[in-house]
Design a protein that fits this description.
Distance between the termini: 56 Å
CATH class: Alpha Beta
CATH architecture: 2-Layer Sandwich
Oligomer: single chain
CATH topology: Endonuclease, Chain A
Number of helices: 6
Number of domains: 1
Strand order of the largest sheet: 1-2-8-7-6-3-4-5
Radius of gyration: 17 Å
Helix content: 40-55%
Largest sheet: 8 strands, mixed
Amino acid sequence: MCNVRNRLLPSILFTLALLGAGCQEDLTLAGTEVYMCQDRGGVCSERVLSLANSAGGAMWVAMFSFTHEDIAQALAAAAGRGVDVAVILETRQDNPVVATLQAGGVRVRQDGNGSSMHHKFAVVDGEMVATGSYNWTSNGDYHNDENLVVLHSEAVASDFAAEFIRIWDLGTTP
């Protein structure tokens, strides 16, 4: 019984912390930020906007559904500041922000894997990753039950960057 309790306790505490995050302030634990998008509409896009606005070296994005024009404009502005911004999108999704991204100097590709590219992540400056169920859409911000987790870890960022490169290499120009 003691082994079961020792294994379950961290999971139970994490679950309770997540449940409490939607009722109070967003959760931050040891370099991890957790946001519940629908609880405070706009909080997820605000965090993504702040990441784009603060990126200094690179911001690589893999996004299943991307229709949020403000985020597209922030990525284009980052590219205009000299940040290496690259976005790969799901081929079978309508992503109307492509024109904004390309006009702003953002490199854009569509996935080429033959199945769904269902990722939702951004690697920022090789130091952090924004990931979760959050699609970069207004519905994701205000209507859907979605989450955004920002992980401050170079090791995690390296793993996500490797995945980004893998799917980028399979991608095609829209």
